[in-house]
Write a structure and sequence with these properties.
Strand content of chain A: 15-25%
Helix content of chain A: 40-55%
Structural class of chain B: alpha/beta
Radius of gyration of chain B: 18 Å
CATH architecture of chain A: Alpha-Beta Barrel
Largest sheet of chain A: 10 strands, parallel
Largest interface: A-B, 33 and 21 residues
Number of helices of chain B: 8
Keywords (chain A): Monooxygenase, Oxidoreductase
Protein name (chain A): 5,10-methylene tetrahydromethanopterin reductase
Helix content of chain B: 40-55%
Order of helices and strands of chain B: EHEHHEEHEHEEHHH
GO cellular component, one term (chain A): cytosol
Oligomer: heterodimer
Biased composition (Basic and acidic residues) (chain A): 352-365
Number of strands of chain B: 7
Domain Luciferase-like (chain A): 1-293
Chain lengths: 365, 206
């Protein structure tokens, strides 16, 4: 099982000081956070993609390429790459290059994007979001898998004799997760192709996540990719920790109360009981996270959101220390106990390569 | 035969004249349906205790368990009686907010009996210019006759009798409508979305 962090890349003033980092500071802080994630033993760093203030990650593969050069081991991913407003040819190119530069430490998560005004900036129309998702992704898969692509769709100009350059590393396309907070359509899409399904999880109640994951698992089996248990599931989570839980609550409350995504709605306590948000001691985070398995089954990837709502870099790095030293080692051990033999490990470039070579060896007479 | 009615009351006070009107509408509809051999199971949804949850759902995007339960009660009904106080020539903000966060399609093809209360008769068209357009927008089937009750209707004896007649007529119309519509089919947007995607994937190029 993989553990990691996913960032939204927001520039939010720290409500306790009123100060906000500059865009440059925030971008550099993101690199520091990613390197720290590797240092404390996490498996994955993922960045969101946004094209409007107050967010900075408009060019995830640029950021990930830079991080790739400054890390050795950690997998670099997105959370999410917009399949609707990005051109599939450009996505294929960007991630192919990133694969080569990072030595295969690359996968990606696809999402539609729900910010209406962004669509026309890229020549698209949010009312077409679902058909765009289906058409663009269908094309992206072919670009990564076929040497020469002739393609014609309804929402993008046709391709004739197109060959992706560079070809994916070792001819293995990056593993794709489809990410969603709310939309069952995305679970269906992931199941149809036998890709990974990432339930963002963090802003919604477990009952909803359970329904989404269950749907994905059933449909994954329906489309003939294997048993429901062999489907590839990722979950988000959001935590704030201090050794003493009262300290965690006291310190995090002003951030929660003022954060654009949470503020002025349910209280910290209500939100914590309704969603997976866990503010407390490392032990509480461990117990809560282990509970995810009860409704999602044995799953493959757990990402935590740590660096948002104006939390200072120093605090985020302390969170990573706690996560790497006290939380993830216990989670690795506990999640392995009683794990279904049918539950696969999270796919990596190496595992996909081995799988292909094994298949090729078997196919030989 | 059994018909499930859900009565939504947006009254804010305790006791509430809005709830009183809701009770009288429910009782009258029950009597009418009983006369036609139909048993009624009624569930009341009071909006006041859900006030915080309704605003929270607007901000967070998802309902807390008590609000979700209320949504379920509405979705499972074969007919809905909805009663609001009238404020400033329209329904109350809380009443509107409940329908703003109610999942889409919940009221699709749902027979609805409207009611409203207010300080004076001057508000009486609130049923026609505020409630009916909203329910039409939500694809509900709105009964032709709603009931508006002003302070005078509750206060004076003669007017009280007139209100009783208006309630009885509205209930009679509505009972026929509910019987005509039969049992209401609960929409499941979750499986509808999944099915729509399946069709798109099947028809699309890949």
């Amino acid at each position: 099982m993989q553990f990691g962090i996913f960032t939204v890349g927001d520039v939010t003033p720290d409500p306790t000081t009123g100060g906000a980092p500059t865009e440059a500071e925030r971008i550099r802080a993101t690199v520091t956070i990613a390197r720290k994630a590797e240092e404390v033993g996490l498996d994955v760093f993922a960045t969101g993609e946004h094209h409007n203030p107050p967010f900075v990650p408009s060019s995830p593969t640029t950021l990930l390429g830079y991080i790739a050069a400054r890390t050795e081991r950690i997998i670099l991913s997105t959370s999410t790459t917009l399949i609707t407003t990005n051109d599939p040819v450009k996505i294929a190119e960007d991630f192919s290059v990133l694969q080569h530069l990072s030595g295969g430490r690359t996968d990606l998560m696809l999402g539609r994007g729900n910010t209406g005004p962004v669509y026309p900036w890229f020549g698209q129309d949010i009312r077409q979001a679902v058909p765009l998702t289906v058409e663009h992704y269908g094309l992206l898969r072919r670009l990564w898998r076929e040497e020469v692509v002739d393609w014609e769709g309804e929402l993008r100009s046709p391709l004739q004799g197109f060959t992706l350059a560079p070809r994916p590393l070792d001819g293995i396309p990056p593993f794709v997760w489809h990410g969603s907070i709310r939309t069952p359509e995305i679970a269906e899409l992931a199941a149809f192709y036998g890709d990974g399904f990432f339930a963002n999880h963090i802003f919604w109640p477990p009952s909803h996540t359970q329904k989404m994951v269950e749907t994905y698992r059933q449909r994954f089996a329906h489309y003939g990719h294997g048993s429901p248990e062999s489907a590839v599931v990722g979950l988000g989570g959001q935590v704030f920790m201090r050794p003493n839980s009262q300290d965690a609550v006291r310190e995090f409350r002003p951030y929660f109360d003022n954060a654009p995504v949470y503020g002025h709605g349910p209280s910290l306590e209500e939100f914590s009981s309704l969603t997976p948000l866990t503010v407390g001691s490392p032990r509480q985070v461990i117990d809560r996270t282990l509970g995810f398995r009860e409704y999602a089954g044995d799953y493959q990837r757990q990402l935590f959101l740590l660096d948002h709502a104006g939390l200072p870099l120093k605090t985020v790095l302390e969170q990573l220390d706690l996560l790497g030293e006290e939380v993830v080692p216990v989670l690795r051990k506990e999640f392995a106990v009683g794990r279904s033999p049918e539950a696969p490990a999270a796919p990596t470039h190496q595992s996909l390569l081995r799988e292909r070579d094994t298949r090729a060896a078997k196919a030989k007479p | 035969m059994t018909t499930r009615l859900t009565i939504i009351s947006g009254g804010l006070r305790e006791p509430s004249s809005t709830r009183m009107l809701a009770n009288r509408l429910e009782a009258s509809v029950r009597t009418e349906l009983a006369g036609a051999g139909v048993t009624v199971e009624s569930s009341f949804v009071e909006l006041r205790p859900l006030g915080h949850a309704i605003i929270d759902a607007m901000f967070s995007g998802f309902p807390s368990p008590p609000l979700e339960e209320a949504f379920g009660t509405v979705a499972d009904a074969d007919g809905v009686i909805a009663v609001t106080p009238a404020f400033n020539a329209s329904f109350s903000g809380l009443f509107k907010s409940f329908f703003d966060v109610l999942p889409e399609e919940t009221l699709s093809d749902m027979p609805i009996l409207m009611g409203a209360t207010g300080g004076t008769e001057r508000h009486s068209l609130v049923l026609e210019h505020a409630l009916r357009p909203m329910f039409s927008y939500l694809h509900a089937i709105v009964s032709s006759r709603g009931v508006y009750a002003a302070t005078d209707d509750f206060g004076s004896q003669t007017n009280g009798a007139v209100l009783g007649e208006r309630i009885a007529r509205a209930a009679s119309d509505y009972a026929r409508l509910v019987r005509g519509c039969g049992s209401h089919h609960r929409r499941d947007s979750f499986s509808e979305e999944t099915a729509a995607m399946e069709r798109l994937l099947g028809g699309g190029r890949s």
